[in-house]
Amino acid sequence: MKKKNVTIILRERRGACACHRGHQVGDRFDYASERGKLCPLAMHVAFPYIDIIRYGGEAPRVRDGRILFSCPDPDVLNIFELVPEEQPDDQE
User: Fold this and answer.
1) What stretches in the chain show pLDDT beneath 70?
2) Taking the CB of residue 17, how many other CB atoms lie within 10 A of it?
3) What is the CA radius of gyration of the chain?
4) Residue 26 pLDDT
5) Structural domain boundaries of the chain?
6) What are phi and psi of 10, to 5 degrees?
7) How far is CA 66 from the centre of its chain?
8) Residues with Cβ < 8 Å from 81, sequence gap 6 or more?
9) Which InterPro entries does its entry note (predicted)?
10) Do 15 and 76 contact (CB within 8 A), yes or no?
């Protein structure tokens, strides 16, 4: 089975305050190589979704089919998208 990598993309900010970690709309993170750059609060929420995706499951999706989750900071409320990507066999 090919293990999927996941790209994490910051799609929008719904809260009134800027992100305390400095993330901006449009920021992208490769889970395999850049997960340490993502805010620990956001990563705490993202991890169960990512774990499901990487091991072959289907993460919950919103009405338009995307996999979205939100930052738990109520002043910021960043909305992130998870984009699953197949990895080549030699990277398993």
Assistant:
1) 1, 87-92
2) 11
3) 13
4) 98
5) 4-87
6) -80, 115
7) 11
8) 8, 9, 11, 66, 67, 68
9) CHP04076 (IPR023811)
10) yes
Q: What contacts 46, CB < 8 A, 6 or more positions away?
A: 8, 38, 69, 80, 82
- The reported pLDDT for the residue numbered 3 is 77
Between the alpha carbon of residue 86 and those of residues 5, 45, 66, the distances in Å are 6, 22, 17
**One-character DSSP codes across 10-73:** EEEE-SSS--TT---TT-EEEHHHHGGGS-HHHHHHHHHHHHHHHTT------TTS-EEEE-S-
d(Cα 72, Cα 3) in Å, to the nearest integer? 28
9 to 24, 72, 89: CA distances (angstroms) = 10, 16, 24
Q: How far is CA 46 from each of CA 23, 43, 87, rounded to the nearest angstrom?
A: 15, 5, 19
Amino acid present at 24: Q
Structure tokens at 16: 């009134």
b/e code 18-27 from CB counts within 10 Å (16+ = b): ebebebeeeb
